[in-house]
Amino acid sequence: MTRDMFDVKRAKDGRPVHHWRRDVVELAALFTAVAVADATANLVGHGPDGPALLVISAIALAATAGFHVWWARRHGHAPPTGDTGARPSAEVRQAGPSAESAAAPEAVAGASTLWRMRTTVKDQPGSLAALCTALAGRRVDILSLQTHPLAEGTVDEFLLRAPGGASAAEICRAVSLAGGAGTWIERADAHDLVDAPTRVLGLAARTALDAAELPLALRQLLGRCTIRSLPAAPAGKTRGSQAVPVEGVLEDTVMRLRAPEGAVITVERPYLPFTPTEFARARALVELDARLGPRVPHGRDVLTLPEGDAITVRRADPRDLEAARAMHERCSSRTLGMRYHGPVADADRYLNHLLSPRFGRTLAVETASGRVVGLGHLLWDGDETEVALLVEDDWQRRGIGGELLGRLVAMAVEAGCESVYAVTQASNTGMVAAMRGLDLPLDYQVEEGTLVITARLDATPVVSRLPYDADADAAQQPPAGRIARD
Question: 133-185 pLDDT, tens per residue?
Fold first, then answer.
């Protein structure tokens, strides 16, 4: 039992508990007081003003005793203000809002900021508690917590709500003093309030409906990262990526995953190493995609051109390869040259890549007879997004390019892309006009003789500019969502 416990121990069996050390101290104080009184009496008795000093001392002593009795009765129930060494009493909070809080609600419900933070702590009891105590001292609320065990410690991932005045540097400093290492923090938004299992299940559902969702699902699962897909090597050829095993490879800030058709998906996040838990989640998502096989939503729209011709806009996939090649054969060299910016003979070899859902989404335009006359591509280019169009010569300048571009940009907005870019030539007036028709902020840049137009997706674009024939669509297809929502 410690000394503090002696000081705060209360009465036992209705009587105070006495200790011999306290009795010795009181006895010594009594003897000291007697000695001082005797010395004072001798001084007063032998001095010239002895009687007067004695009377004055008695009056002062009586006044002091009276004041002490009055003060004790007035403040007898006041709590001690000094540090007694005992455990402080629990703070008592009012159940409802106080008058002060009601008068100034902004002081209670002030502006707050959401943060995503990750830090590494030692794998020992009390480490997480110290971290939570440090955050509480800064009035930072922990909304969610995920732990990623490692061999040398534990990575804790937090979703925090901090006072509006708290900066990232202040939070990191508090976490560092509490034992956190390798701390990383960034602003979060309301979408991060969804708990991890719900978010993962939602991403799995999106991937199950559309194979093109896999790169987007990985990006949302792992945060800000760069995702690239490398096609499978042709027969008889090898690539360095072919050495990636089926179970994938995790290398600090890079993970490589094998797609079912032999392609390799590379995920890079230079600013933050991946944990084994994140690698397992990403591998499970890729395995789900592989088990489900090729799949593309079957929704389609039937539109009417200004001349009265009906066209159908739908999603395309590798099964449209022969129809796309036939369209290439009908296109002029000038049209193919503007689209692919290289030798026209190489155009066909791009189609396997462009039609694969691993690298983006493709929209096809069909005539009433089923002939493909236009293709629009939304391509995932690392952490950027490219749009590209190809419309057969006889069907140009009818609004098909603008229709395709509007739908592709709507898909990019839905996928959370911040911008899209198109690589073309200044002489390609049709593509330039289609980009301007988006009514979005545009940036123009000339690179090696080509024109790069970047559209910032600050506002949701118009999805369709052509008349939509709902009756014709219903007559040809069972009820389905419009392609922009697929």
Answer: 999 988 999 888 888 888 778 888 888 999 988 888 899 999 989 888 888 88
Contact 468, 301 (CB under 8 A): yes
223 and 162 part of one domain: no
Handedness of CA 18, 24, 25, 31 (dihedral sign): positive
Tokens of 414: 């839905």
Q: How far is CA 281 from the centre of its chain?
A: 16
pLDDT reported for residue 271: 78
Q: Convert the pLDDT of each residue in 320-355 to its tens digit.
A: 999 999 998 898 888 888 888 766 666 667 788 888
Integer angstrom CA distances of residue 352 from 211, 267, 364, 446, 449: 15, 22, 14, 29, 27
Residue 56 lies in a domain: no
- Alpha carbon distance, N-terminus to C-terminus of the chain: 71
Which of 191, 225, 260 is the last residue before a domain boundary?
A: 191
CA distance 12 to 119: 50
Same structural domain for residues 122 and 210? Answer: no
Residues 394 and 470 occupy one common structural domain: yes
Between CA 392 and CA 394 the distance in angstroms is 6
Q: Is residue 234 one of the residues assigned to a domain?
A: yes
Domain containing 281: what range? 196-292
In this predicted model, what pLDDT tens digit does every residue of 198-236 receive, in sequence order?
A: 888 888 887 888 777 788 788 888 887 888 877 666 555
Which of residues 175, 191, 207 is at a domain's end?
A: 191
Whether the model clears a pTM of 0.85, i.e. scores above it, the answer is no
Tokens representing residue 305 in the block:
């051109």
